[in-house]
Amino acid sequence: MKNYPFYLTWTAQNNALKIDIKGSKGPCYITNDGRKLYDLSSTSYQAAFGHSYKPIKDAIKKQLNTLPISSPKGIFDLKEDATKKLLSLINLPGKIFYTTSGAESVENALKIARQITGKNIVLARENSYHGATLGALSITGDWRNKDHQTVSKWTKRIPDPIDDPKAIALEKLILKVGAEKIAAICLETFVGGNGVFSAPKSWWNALNKLKKKYNFLIILDEVVSGFGRTGKAFGFQHFSIRPDIICMAKIITGGYIPFGALWTTKKISKVYDTKVLSCGLTNYAHPLGLAAMSAVIDDITSDQFKINFSNLELKLIEAKDKLSQLSTVSDVRQVGLLMAVDLKTKPAFEKFIEQEILVAIVGQRLIIAPPYTMTPAKLKSLLNRVYNILKEKDEN
């Protein structure tokens, strides 16, 4: 393998998977030999508008010609207007803190939760991923946590909500750890690359009661499931849960600019009216990120978006029914435009590349998260290719 002057992420460098690309168009990467690679994973679930979406590009270009950079303390119309749009999308009273990634959003959520409560322990799910920075990695439960010296003494793993539908075991854990030590619980509303799992509605209902009874904060990680991916603006809107902090990134700008945010309740924001908010970033509320976010929110709140989303979702539901019938498939889970296909053996990445498809492969699982801008006919065609690849394996 060629020795590149840069690292490839989450892999040993000598056997890293790589994709040689020279450009992009619509929902595709263009390879060095001129082939199209249809991005059925939206490039780590963020490129929900494909790779050359004019409204987002135009918003960024326009901002480049007016105010391309700002002091974190800068006050300007875009900052206020875009933030009001975001608050309207969340549809809960509160305040926004801006970041440049999902990991930074989670990191600052943990800092705020511990500062506000004066407690240390954060409860988290084993089957989870919350980011690669040290604090976010500490509450991450998957394999990416294992090789690092994290602040694990401040993390306690909860019983999986699927096995604890009424949160009875969770309450026992809270009593064992000591509610007086627990600052927050941090959860993905829909687990992304780790399998498109959520929790039963009964569990979310019970969590609301436990929060009130034991006085801890609820941090929701909406980095994958935010901005329309699940069929609602945010994943938590499928449930009755009342969060204290919401972490966002990825689709917030369609991936066109590294950007993120976290929302806090009014109750939390009032604390910082007089208490110093000791959180900040050099690129806080970056104007290019705000411009891209504003364009994204305009798009996902339009009637045309909702119509196309519904049509795309129907194609995914149809594919789910077909894929479930294959003997090589053990389970399929889908919500909105996010689907996990559990397989009995690990699929070959190269088979999909041969069929001009880029999918996320996590162990023995495919994660499919198509761009919102794809046509239903094209999505159906690509999902048929996925089916045929797995069917061929089934027949062999």
Description:
The chain is of the alpha/beta class and 396 residues long. The protein has 2 domains: 13-53 and 304-395, Aspartate Aminotransferase, domain 1 (Alpha-Beta Complex), CATH 3.90.1150; 56-300, Aspartate Aminotransferase, domain 2 (3-Layer(aba) Sandwich). It is 36% helix and 18% strand. The protein has 12 helices and 15 strands. Strands 4-10-9-8-7-5-6 form a 7-stranded mixed beta sheet, sandwiched between helices. A 4-stranded mixed beta sheet has the order 1-2-3-13. The model has no long low-confidence stretch (mean pLDDT 95).
SSE arrangement:
Elements: E1 21-25, E2 28-31, E3 36-39, H1 42-45, H2 54-64, H3 77-90, E4 94-99, H4 102-117, E5 121-125, H5 134-139, E6 155-158, H6 168-177, E7 182-188, H7 201-214, E8 217-221, E9 245-248, E10 260-265, H8 266-271, H9 287-300, H10 303-323, E11 329-335, E12 338-343, H11 349-354, E13 357-358, E14 360-361, E15 365-368, H12 376-395
Parallel strand pairs: 3-13, 5-6, 5-7, 7-8, 8-9
Antiparallel strand pairs: 1-2, 2-3, 4-10, 9-10, 11-12, 12-15, 14-15
